[in-house]
Amino acid sequence: MKRIAVVLSGAGYLDGSEITESVSLLIELGRAGVKYDIFAPNKDYKATTHHSLTNIELGIRNAIEESSRITRGNVRDLEELTVTRYDGIALPGGYGIAKNLSTWAQDGPGCTVNKKFKDVLQKMHESSKPILALCIAPALIARVLGQITQPNITIGNDEETIKKIERCGGEHIECKVSDFVSDRENKIVTTPAYMFEVEHYEVFEGIQKACKEFLEMC
C-alpha cells in the first residue's frame, strides 16, 4: 500500500492551510486506498479573521492544533516526518505556506523556509519520490529546488507570483484551475486551485486530476 505524507500549516486560507483544498486532497487519497499521515509545524502564529476579511488578528494559534480541526485530531509534529517511510509528499495551499512554513509572505523569493520542511523536500527529490503541491505551495518548491533543478510548476496566471517563482529558478507554466502541470522528470505535480477566484467544484476537479497523476508516480 502506498504511504503519503501530507503537510498542513493551520486551518484557513489567510493564515493556514486552505480547507477545501486540504479536504479534497484527503478525500482523493482515501478513495485511492492510500495510507496517509498528516504533519504540521509546531509553531504559534497570529490568527486572522476569515469573516470580515479585514485582517483583524484573533490572537495566537498553534499550527498543529489548528490543522487538527481539518483532520479530526490526527496531526503529527512535522519534526517527526521521516522521508524513508513515505512514497511521496502532498502539500495543500493556503497562506500558512507563506507564513508558517516559510517567510515568503514577507521576503518572497529570498525567503527562509522551515528547516525541517526544506530538508524533507530536498530528500524527497533526491530519492526520486513525487511531490504534489496545490495553490501557492509550488512557490516553495521553486524556492527549495530551483537551485538544484528547474522544476516545471504552476500557480495559474498571477503575473507577480510568476516572476517571483522564476527568480527562484522555477519554470512556470500557465494552467487552468481544472487542470494540472506534471513535471515527470522531477516528479512534481502542481495545480492552481484557489490562485483563481473560481467555484469550489472547479478546484476539486483540478485536485482530483493532479492527485491521480501524483499517485501514478508513486
Brief summary of the model shown:
This protein has 218 residues and is α/β, with parallel strands linked by helices. 36% of the residues lie in helices and 20% in strands.
Structure in words:
- It is a single chain.
- This protein has 218 residues and is an alpha/beta fold.
- It has one domain: Class I glutamine amidotransferase (GATase) domain (Rossmann fold).
- The model has no long low-confidence stretch (mean pLDDT 95).
Q: Helical proportion? A: 25-40%
CATH class: Alpha Beta
Structural class: alpha/beta
Strand order of the largest sheet: 5-2-1-6-7-11-10
Order of helices and strands: EHEEEHEEHHHEHEHEEEH
Overall pLDDT score: 95
What's the number of structural domains? 1
Q: Shape from CA axes?
A: globular
Q: Number of helical runs?
A: 8
CATH architecture: 3-Layer(aba) Sandwich
Ranges with pLDDT <50 over ≥5 residues? none
> Radius of gyration over alpha carbons?
15 Å
Explain the layout of strands and helices.
Layout: E1 3-7, H1 19-31, E2 35-40, E3 44-48, E4 57-62, H2 63-71, E5 76-77, E6 88-91, H3 96-99, H4 104-107, H5 115-126, E7 131-134, H6 138-145, E8 152-153, H7 159-168, E9 171-172, E10 181-183, E11 188-191, H8 200-217
Parallel strand pairs: 1-2, 1-6, 2-5, 6-7, 7-11, 8-9
Antiparallel strand pairs: 3-4, 10-11
